[in-house]
Design brief:
Number of helices: 6
Helix content: 55-70%
Structural class: alpha+beta
Order of helices and strands: HHHEHEEHHE
Strand order of the largest sheet: 2-3-1-4
Number of strands: 4
Shape: globular
């Protein structure tokens, strides 16, 4: 696909989302939206849809899978919140902060970006650093760190129809 056509599509997708979410349609706010979407398109158009040879049908399939993934992620966020509530009111011995090293087999930067943000959105875990294929994650307890079992990575790989080469390798850097 032509690079300018691709950027135009990304721009109009972003502008459409901006208009729906802002709900403001006066000249001032529309101008701000156009400027904002143009800057974001210029800075990050290569991040979204790196493989531009994928057809519309495959993109729709990815969009549906992404929506299913986001519903699953919302459920996991709720469960993690309940776990943190239990930690807050339970004995302090349940708190076992740790740094977990997690190796991923996801290939694209966008897939890694989605994994890192999904981990951080889940209460009790924060992605601190990504170095190549290795994620360094702070987990507040053993239960939070046991949630890094590769399920999230497999679901993200399914969204983009790229099977991970192996299940994520979780280890504590002190033991590595």
């Amino acid at each position: 696909m032509n690079r300018n056509l691709y950027r135009g599509i990304v721009f109009f997708l972003l502008l459409g989302v901006w208009m729906v979410l802002s709900g403001l349609f006066d000249a001032f706010h529309l101008t701000l939206g156009v400027i904002s979407c143009a800057i974001v398109t210029w800075l990050s158009s290569d991040l979204l849809f790196q493989n531009r040879n994928t057809g519309l049908r495959a993109r729709l399939r990815q969009s549906i899978r992404l929506c299913v993934y986001l519903v699953w992620l919302l459920k996991e966020i709720i469960l993690a919140n309940l776990h943190l509530l239990k930690l807050s009111f339970g004995p302090k011995t349940l708190l076992q902060p740790q740094i977990v090293r997690y190796r991923t087999s996801l290939q694209s930067d966008f897939e890694k970006f989605l994994l890192a943000n999904s981990i951080t959105l889940t209460p009790g875990t924060v992605t601190m650093r990504i170095h190549g294929d290795t994620f360094y994650i702070h987990a507040i307890s053993d239960i939070a760190s046991s949630g890094l079992d590769g399920t999230m990575e497999r679901k993200i790989a399914h969204v983009f129809a790229s099977a991970p080469l192996a299940t994520g390798d979780q280890s504590n850097p002190e033991n590595a």
